[in-house]
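Question (not urgent): is this output format expected?
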Amino acid sequence: MKIDNKPWLWIPLLNFASGLPYAIILSVSVIMYKSLGINNEDIGIYTSLLYLPWVIKPLWSPFIDIYATKRKWFLSMQLLISIAFLIVGLTIPLSSFFVMSLAVFWVAAFASASNDVASDGFYMLALEKEQQSFFLGIRSTFYRLSMLTGNGLIVIIAGYLEQEYGDKQKAWSYTMIIVAAIMALITIYNYFSTPKNETIISQKESEVQPKVSFGHVFVTFFQKKQIGLVLTFILVFRLGESQLLKMLTPFLIDGKEVGGLGLTTEDVGIIYGTFGVTALVIGGILGGIAISKHGLGKWMLPMILMMHLPIIGFILLSYFHPQSEIYIYIAVIAEQFGYGFGFAAFMMFLIYVADGESKTAHYSIATGFMALGMMLPGMLSGFIQEYLGYANFFIWVFCATIPGLILSRFLIFPSDFGKKSDV
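Got this back:
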């Protein structure tokens, strides 16, 4: 039996510490660079490359099992992330801030991916199976709250400081220093709140679970049924979304003379980071409930359609440029709700793919391919947008969702997978 580790005290902020760096590195960085005058091509290619640590995460994740405890890993990585954000804040006033801040973001990205692996492993070690199921929703909720904090509150703070100082570099410098301070406080809290009995638990686990070689884990993953089709589906499913996410913020901020909507940074924080992320959370919760009631088979196609059809809203915004912001709110809320609702099906399918022997490692590999499917198209998104213009770009993004939709019809999985047992 595992000791009662008072999970209510440490699970919320441990997962908050996973989501906040992810939001800052992959989403808020786009807003920051756009606000500081970086062009769309450079934003697309270089911020997409920040996905790479999550792509290759499975390659170094075994070292987290071998060297030191997972608690030491996530505390060290959270401290490193705090220092990295502080350095980003200090580099922004410099003339070469773009290159320097990207380099530091890369360090933070590797630390964040490692923190995710260690935190997930610690969660599975420190809790009983029944506790793991019970606290799964708590983990997800606080992870999403961290995304809301990053994409909403942090961006609103940056927008407020832009107006307060009339100096965007100073505003974003102070904002990143604030983020560093928040991460440092969370790290200190996690140091005192997380249980220290992991070594004993690991020894007991190793007594009953045979060791599996690193090579065996990879071989068994690529021996799974329909693996070629599955990997192709994982790579192309987010082909449209990966480009949309990189260019949506530039579209909201760019002036109307170049096809954008001309919003301020603070507007983006309120509309996209607050209302949008709230809709994302609600959509994700309802998506999980729907699958648990009826199974993945019934909801796969409707959820994919719900995820992609709202892109039409951005096509309309880019063509008509409405004066009232209410239409922007509607389009963003619809897209984020649909994304949260539909993405639940995709994540449930990844759980199905990983099911069986070495499920944790196989899930890590599957999510690595998912990150690769986000990184490569995102790198090209800025060039495509500049060539097509915003209106035609959103049409292209909508068309890019079709391959994933077609491939989904050929996937074989139990129709009741994910359905909650009545027993």
